[in-house]
Design goal:
Blueprint (H helix, E strand, L loop, with lengths): L18 E3 L9 H5 L4 E3 L5 E3 L9 H10 L5 E3 L3
Antiparallel strand pairs: 1-4, 2-3
This protein binds iron/sulfur cluster.
């Protein structure tokens, strides 16, 4: 049996992944943009937007750093 939390449900290592930003939680600190400028950009209202989705394998580490650095936990992997 598989479910969303089982190892079988996780994407294979190195596979592209989708990331999301909770715009209601975002306070525009820009840490995500600093960590992964290829993937996040602040809009005119200082809300972070995902500009590259899915995230290609070579940028997964940068995005994982953005997930960890966001003080509002607004950056999340879509598959978690
Ligand atoms: S680090 Fe978090 S709060 Fe700051 S801009 Fe990015 S998503 Fe918004």
């Amino acid at each position: 049996m598989t479910d969303a939390l089982s190892p079988e449900a996780a994407p294979p290592a190195g596979a592209p992944r989708s990331v999301t930003v909770d715009e209601l939680a975002c306070e525009g600190h820009g840490r995500c943009e600093n960590a992964a400028p290829e993937v996040f950009a602040l809009d005119e209202d200082d809300i972070s937007r995902v500009i590259l989705d899915p995230v290609p394998p070579h940028l997964l580490g940068k995005v994982e750093r953005a997930v960890r650095l966001c003080p509002r936990q607004a950056v999340r992997w879509a598959d978690e």
